[in-house]
Amino acid sequence: xxxxxxxxxxxxxxxxxxxxxxxxxxxxxxxxxxxxxxxxxxxxxxxxxxxxxxxxxxxxxxxxxxxxxxxxxxxxxxxxxxxxxxxxxxxxxxxxxxxxxxxxxxxxxxxxxxxxxxxxxxxxxxxxxxxxxxxxxxxxxx
Length: 142
Prior knowledge:
Blueprint: E1 5-7, E2 25-28, E3 33-35, E4 40-49, E5 55-60, H1 63-69, E6 71-73, E7 78-80, E8 87-94, E9 100-102, E10 107-115
Antiparallel strand pairs: 1-4, 2-10, 3-9, 4-8, 5-7, 5-10, 6-8
């Protein structure tokens, strides 16, 4: 699938899959940002895209940044609707114990594009039974 992409910062690398078959493409920081523990900030990526109708873009954390530094995406995954045409931005948060600096050009998140179900709802007076029932948080054990 080819997705229309507008480069807002030509000096940054284009998003790409690092390995064949990877689910996401890397997003790069347009500006440097320093995050103290517990701090969050909005980091632009220097690109805008046109997600195809019937799909959604999901901005997800990078596992390496999460493991090494505690950097995540506050609203993970961030949703990029098909109609949005503005610059992709990442709401980064430092969940670690040390101040972290993300430099311009660093890979800060990844974009995953997936098809959507065309949802509708039928209001009912009761839901059909299931084996799980209403068991929720922690119901499958430790």
